[in-house]
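Example 3.2
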Amino acid sequence: MVGLLVSSPVFASLAKSHNPFRLIGVGLSVFTLATAGCGAAPSFWFIAICRMLVGVGEASFISLAAPFIDDNAPVSQKTAWLAVFYMCIPTGIALGYVYGGLVGEHLNWRYAFWGEALLMFPFAVFGFVVKPLQLKGFSSVESKKALTPMETVLLSLDIHNILNRLSQFGKDMKVLLVDKVYVVNVLGYVAYTFVLGAYGYWGPKAGYNIYHMKSADMLFGGITVVCGIFGTIAGGFILDRMSATINHAFILLSGATFLGAISCFSAFCLRNLYGFLVLFAVGELLLFAAQAPVNFVCLHCVKPSLRPLAMAMSTVSIHIFGDVPSFPLFGVVQDHINNWKTTTLMLTSIFFLAAGFWFIGIFLPSVDKSNDENETQVSPNPMVDTKTLPDGNGDKGPAEVQGSNFRPPC
């Protein structure tokens, strides 16, 4: 989690001076090497550091993959494509438990990590050998003169370059923080993730204590995986059928979350186990329908060049203020109240807060900025020779454009 949260905004910022497609390749390479390192770990601290580096590799996907999907998906299927991408999270978690258990039982736990590294290796190579795609809203950042690795390192360590990046990061963050649509969307996402995080950690134990489930882990895990897959895909397809707009996304977010909250709240009020399982499954189906729309809003309420940072800061926010603090806070409340049903109902009621934030979003003036073709993204890349550029602002004149490999951001 540390590697993920620290690196997500870093990758988003680097996208302004390095090709984002290549950055994904770098992230996947770090992921692959760190996973192999976990398998070879001689000590606890070695594997802990490697796990942190796994988060660094994952960060490149968190901030950059969704904008690429949004650029390349058909207009009528953008949210459905995003839904398929985010559906991979619960699917991967489920397959990971099965894969890790089987390999660990028949071979050794180290082979589980090495096998994962081998499976990821072709994707890491893919990020470097394929002709890189350009993200909408970003000018070409290729240098006229190829730099050696040593020159690249020296430029990256240049103090002026670092200060420029920090200054630009501060300006971009200010833009995000004054965007009411973005802020309201993330606040709803934080409240939503707060509950899901505690569900994932305490759900089986609550089920065991309230309903005396014999296989609480399997039941909760199975319901979450199945509902996560079908609910996430359904949310994407439904928003596309509604005509994917920010306003329609907020309508779906608030409606599905409100109904899901009612269903889950009612489930924990029941004494009958089978009634609980049915209502809880319906609730999770509705709640997971929010996954694609909430990320659609993050991508479309900001200018194209801010999408990586918007996705990165959304991820940082939902973890720092959402699922990371939720399960220890739940434990503190449960220790104080000593009543699993009451504590779980208190937790579930926070879904209504999430629905409330997204309901406010319906009435906010919203403009889809994802097709802002008037934006010319200035690349702060020090590798670019600015002597021949008018006013040193990084925009080439017509004559220079004709004689270069320049391609418009869109």
